[in-house]
């Protein structure tokens, strides 16, 4: 368990039947309404209810005992106060290794919001990408099969009309993935259905590379991770110099060994480990630094990564009223919003990953909940869907002086 301090910024987000640009204006106004506060001594019990923290511990321990995951790292932060803890093991095959707070996990689809989304947002902020322009404006091959009008925003919000994934087949290489993605035929018109799609973010990763002239991993390292001092966050962590014994393994391969330091996602693996939809590795402490930056309207420890209006645009509703609420990359209120639990208000935001990773952040109370695990180690039989929801609810119930009504 640790207690830490961080600077915060008051954010009040309101969602309803307004157009997304009205929502953006409201979020932007809230992001600028209070300067970051200096760290000050705090008492854990003044921020969190101890019985709820015990319930969080119990829920995770029970999940481990039920073989739903081998272990994990939980991180709950509010207004600079941190409750963080490691549970169980990071490895059970071929040998037992205790989980620790500095365990590095395969982030899976958290890659979408910790790498690709901020990279695209950085380029939007500087006018190098217009989210309302067709993606084919930047990637001309994408226009094939009637996709010429699908916008960058529609791809970012999973409203593009594309299938969930590229599927199997004997192919390899990032360029081949782009070719296959551009050759996709839409299954329905854009902005008419929400279909969560890795293809969308494979395309966005290539968009970043085309517009910036840098590979996606190099771009994120230079413009996001290095400024935020996220030293344990990287694609291809072994090449990045991160210690293999700190990395949590995932699924057992046919040869009996487990993926460790190599991305679990098969499509990202075919692409060489760097992709817009998966491939990132990280720690809970690094994810928390990213969340602090978002909470402070784009700045952390005197370093500005985004303008407040860029953060506001990412986390405000960008989908039409007929679709689930999604921001740019971020989930707000969709069928995948399990980590929100039953009490986080609409206006909070987050994401989850296949390997057992999740984060959810509530701007109004300056709180974020992170759980990183390798639930698919040593096999895919692990399942933490119910645990994610339970942790989100317990986290909201733990806050002293904050009461939420049920959002369900």
Describe this structure in words.
By secondary structure, the protein is α+β, with helices and mostly antiparallel strands. It has one domain (20-397): Beta-lactamase (3-Layer(aba) Sandwich). It has twelve helices and 13 strands. The chain has helices at residues 20-31, 44-47, 50-65, 111-125, 152-156, 174-182, 198-212, 216-225, 266-270, 284-295, 308-315, 385-397; strands at residues 71-78, 81-91, 97-98, 105-106, 234-235, 280-282, 299-300, 303-304, 325-326, 331-333, 349-353, 357-362, 367-373. It starts with 19 loop residues before the first helix and ends in an 11-residue tail after the last helix. Mean pLDDT is 91; it is low at 1-19 and 32-41.
- Provide the CATH superfamily: DD-peptidase/beta-lactamase superfamily
Q: Evaluate the radius of gyration.
A: 20 Å
Strand order of the largest sheet: 3-2-1-13-12-11
Largest sheet: 6 strands, antiparallel
Question: How would you classify the helix and strand content by structural class?
Answer: alpha+beta
**Could you state the order of secondary-structure elements as H and E?**
HHHEEEEHHHHHEHEHEEHEEEEEH
Question: CATH fold name, please?
Answer: Beta-lactamase
Put simply, the count of helices is 12
């Amino acid at each position: 368990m640790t207690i830490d301090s961080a600077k915060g910024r008051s954010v009040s987000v309101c969602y309803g039947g307004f157009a997304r640009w009205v929502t953006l204006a409201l979020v932007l106004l809230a992001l600028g309404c209070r300067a970051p506060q200096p760290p000050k001594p705090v008492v854990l019990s003044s921020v969190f209810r101890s019985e709820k923290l015990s319930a969080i511990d119990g829920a995770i321990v029970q999940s481990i005992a039920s073989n739903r995951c081998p272990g994990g790292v939980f991180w709950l932060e509010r207004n600079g106060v941190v409750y963080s803890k490691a549970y169980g093991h990071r490895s059970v095959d071929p040998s037992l290794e205790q989980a620790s707070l500095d365990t590095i996990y395969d982030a899976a689809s958290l890659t979408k919001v910790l790498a690709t989304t901020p990279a695209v947002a950085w380029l939007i902020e500087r006018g190098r990408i217009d989210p309302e322009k067709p993606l084919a404006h930047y990637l001309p091959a994408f226009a094939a099969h009637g996709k010429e009008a699908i916008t960058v925003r529609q791809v970012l919000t999973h409203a593009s009309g594309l299938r969930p994934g590229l599927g199997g087949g004997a192919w390899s290489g990032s360029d081949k993935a782009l070719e296959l993605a551009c050759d996709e035929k839409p299954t329905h018109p854009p902005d008419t259905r929400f279909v969560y799609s890795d293809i969308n973010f494979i395309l966005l990763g290539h968009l970043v590379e085309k517009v910036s002239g840098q590979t996606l991993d190099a771009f994120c390292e230079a413009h996001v991770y290095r400024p935020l001092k996220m030293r344990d966050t990287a694609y291809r962590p072994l090449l990045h110099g991160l210690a293999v014994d700190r990395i949590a393994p995932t699924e057992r391969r046919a040869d009996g060994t487990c993926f460790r330091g190599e991305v679990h996602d098969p499509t990202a693996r075919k692409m060489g480990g760097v992709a817009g939809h998966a491939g990132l590795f990280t720690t809970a402490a690094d994810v928390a630094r990213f969340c602090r930056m978002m909470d402070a309207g784009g700045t952390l420890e005197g370093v500005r990564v985004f303008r407040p209006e860029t953060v506001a645009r990412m986390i405000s509703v960008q989908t039409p009223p007929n679709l689930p609420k999604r921001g740019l990359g971020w989930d707000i209120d969709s069928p995948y919003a399990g980590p929100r639990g039953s009490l986080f208000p609409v206006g909070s935001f987050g994401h989850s990953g296949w390997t057992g990773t999740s984060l959810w952040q509530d701007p109004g109370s300056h709180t974020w909940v992170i759980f990183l695990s390798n639930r698919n180690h040593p096999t895919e039989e692990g399942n933490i869907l119910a645990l994610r929801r339970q942790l989100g609810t317990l986290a909201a119930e733990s806050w002293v002086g904050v009461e939420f009504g049920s959002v369900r």
